[in-house]
Amino acid sequence: MTTTPSPDLTDSLRNRRAPLDLPPDQFRAFGHQLVDQIADFLASLPSRKVTPGEPVQAVRELIDFNRSLPEQGCEPGPLLGWIAEQLFDHSLHNGHPRFWGYVTSSAAPIGALADLLAAAVNPNAGGWKLSPLASEIEVQTIRWIAQLIGYPADCGGLLVSGGNMANFVGFLVGRRKTSGWDVRKEGMAAGGKSLRIYTSQETHTWIQKAADLFGLGTDAIAWVPSDSDQRMGTSQLRAMIEDDRRRGYQPLMIVGTAGSVSTGAVDPLDELADIAAENDLWFHIDGAYGAFAAALPDASADLRALNRADSVAMDPHKWLYAPLEAGCVLVRKRELLLETFSYHPPYYHFDPELTNYFDLGPQNSRGFRALKVWLALQQVGREGYVRMISDDIRLAGELYRILPDYPDLERLTHGLSIVTFRYLPPDLRSRRGTPEVGEYLDDLNREILDRLEASGEAFLSNAVVNGRFALRLCIVNFRTSLEDIEALPPLVIRLGEEADRARRTS
Ligand SMILES: Cc1ncc(COP(=O)(O)O)c(C=O)c1O
Fold first, then answer.
1. Is 198 in the pocket of ligand 1 (CB under 6 A)?
2. How much is the pLDDT for 7?
3. For a tag on the chain, would you pick the N or C end, based on fewer CB atoms within 10 A?
4. All structural domains of the chain
5. How far away, in angstroms, is 489 Cα from ligand 1 center?
């Protein structure tokens, strides 16, 4: 039985005015205002504190944290203008010239505009017909990234949220390809043998999440010791594979790192590729941070050996300076992505001859991440990226070079654009190897890191180098200049002296 809607309802549906819609004139006005605010914010970055370092309570007060969900709406223009100012004033600014923490880059401004455009058009880059131009732009972006780092340009690949996800995809393709049985259908237990993954102790913690999430368990990770340069020891690797085989384990894959998260170390990738080939193992490289350095004309032989990997992960939101989020994975044989991820449910009607990204990765609906990467690659070209990445590396090298001019600072490591060092009070220099002084120095440098963060004058993170707590600078920041780098040693010494004095007098 059908019922006739009331005339009122029919009218409101016929002339529907949804509360979420913005009439074009309002959209234009709010958008112009926001872009003006962002332009001013970007210009103001150098004069701001890197982070306001406010306590959680103060941050919550800004948004009246405990209030309930609003029942009625409000004026969007003022709301947007207000939250923009709050974000500018109460965020950590990884776009600040003196932000050097973790592996987090300054974001290309064109990427911010790209995200606005991508959200406005809102293509679903899961299926080709839902995103014809966006899908082709992603395909082209993947090819350009491969060309940039010297990986075979006919590879498969896709953009994902970041390094963890990119590594997961490589891991899953390797698991499916090398396990020797149908893991997708039969599950992990079906093989009857314990699988082993070989990687160095310097590998980022994604590897534990992968082993855990994808059913191998973290005991499947064989941690290969690193040498004094934090590079995977290849003789130990060979011995461990042999030993595992004797003990009835099934070696599955080798995971090398191009630019370790702590010190920027690059594993002996060429030799790892040989060992993987000799043993019929999958060879995956985590290049989340360092892979783009393979684009430099003077890239080391090991970085250039990226092109021997079966799969490589890298993060455009690191050294391509894309705004978060943008990770990327390349797989030498494109068909393996399909073999790892594809299902064809009856409710899908997509042309299999075209690129349907839901078929090539774990996501179904997908946003248009490629646009910000594609635009930036064209804004500056290969030449621009080579210049920015090598400037970052040269600036880190400059810090490493000048550190010995400051006897109160002990320099520890330099790899790609990462430098580690620590503050060392003059009277403790000769006793730094003793356990008590070692512990004191660890605590002291931990406090210096906190004081630096609280000062807002610069931002570093930390690493543990040969058991010692170290201050760690990582430049993936196109705004950093030599002046910024030269300001760091005196700043750390000042904070170090203050912290040391406070500890000794308390
Ligand atoms: C070497 C390495 N691998 C993986 C990751 C994880 O990347 P993401 O944070 O984008 O997931 C990082 C992050 O810094 C990294 O440095």
1. no
2. 76
3. N
4. 123-367 (3.40.640.10), 382-505 (3.90.1150.170)
5. 27
Which amino acid, 79? L
Answer whether 234's CB lies under 8 Å from 268's CB.
Answer: yes
Amino acid of residue 406: Y
Mean pLDDT of 277-295: 98
CB 125 within 8 A of CB 138: yes
Element (H, E) at 79: helix 76-89
Say how far apart CA 493 and CA 424 lie, in whole Å: 9
Q: Whose CA is nearest to atom 16 of ligand 1?
A: 261
What is the spatial distance between Cα 473 and Cα 144, in angstroms, rounded to a whole number? 29
- Shortest-distance Cα residue to atom 7 of ligand 1: 163
Give pTM, 2 decimals: 0.96
Cα–Cα distance for residue pair 235/332, rounded to 1 Å? 27
Q: Which residues contact 345 (CB under 8 A, 6 or more apart)?
A: none
Provide the β-strand partners of residue 327: 160
Ligand 1 centroid to residue 46 C-alpha, Å: 26
Decide if pLDDT at 1 tops 60: no
CA-based nearest residue to 266, from 317, 232, 242: 232
Distance from the alpha carbon of residue 166 to the mean position of ligand 1, in angstroms: 9
Condensed to tens digits (0 to 9), the pLDDT of residues 419-455 reads: 999 999 999 999 999 999 999 999 999 999 999 999 9
Residue position matching structure tokens 């010494």: 493
Q: Which of 377, 419, 391 is nearest to 144 (CA)?
A: 377
